Amino acid sequence: MKVLAIASVGGHWVQLLRLLPAFDQMELVFVSTKESSATMVPGYRYYSVPDASRWNKFRLIQSFLKLSTIVFRERPDVVISTGAAPGLMGLIAAKILGIRTIWVDSMANAERLSMSGKLARKFADRIYTQWPELADEKVVCAGSVLS
User: Fold this and answer.
1) What superfamily in CATH does domain 2-141 come from?
2) Radius of gyration of the chain from its Cα atoms, rounded to whole angstroms
3) Which of 29-38, 90-99, 120-129 is predicted with the least confidence, judged by mean pLDDT?
């Protein structure tokens, strides 16, 4: 199984890397927003995309276009993201191509889903949180990334 794993730099990237044991025996391809993050995943294919946010619509479009190209080229079985905006753009691109998607909401959001997580509810096949009180019919709590 090929997994395309997407996260912005910082906490989202750290959280994504904490999930690595879940992908043992799978082909992994990483995407983040900083070229230098490639050094943290040696031996894996790595792509860098423009960082984006809701405050910079042009960068969101750039990010979406680059992610669409990556998703089309790699043809993963599943796309997973821990956030934020570039991850959401990757999930949307994957859904357009009929690829399964997973959103793991930020562990920092203990009281409500992140804004990107709320938007991911519309696109993701599965959404995970580590907080039981945030689980519902669409959001699954399957344990914690960080205790």
Assistant:
1) Glycogen Phosphorylase B; (3.40.50.2000)
2) 14
3) 120-129
**What pairs with residue 5 in β-bridges?**
30, 80
The token duo for 133 is: 């009180």
Number of residues assigned to the chain:
147
Question: CA 20, CA 58: separation in Å to the nearest integer?
Answer: 32
pTM of the predicted structure, to 2 decimals: 0.93
One-letter amino acid of 10: G
pLDDT score recorded for residue 145:
62
Backbone angles phi and psi of 77, in degrees to 5: -80, -30
Cis omega before residue 84 (within 30°)? yes
Residue 16 to residue 27: CA distance in whole angstroms: 15
| Domains in the chain: boundaries | 2-141
Burial of residue 79 (CB within 10 Å: 0-12, 13-18, 19+) is buried
DSSP 28-97: EEEEES-GGGGGGSTTSEEEE----BTTBHHHHHHHHHHHHHHHHHH--SEEEEEESHHHHHHHHHHHHT
Distance (Å, whole) CA 117 – CA 109: 10
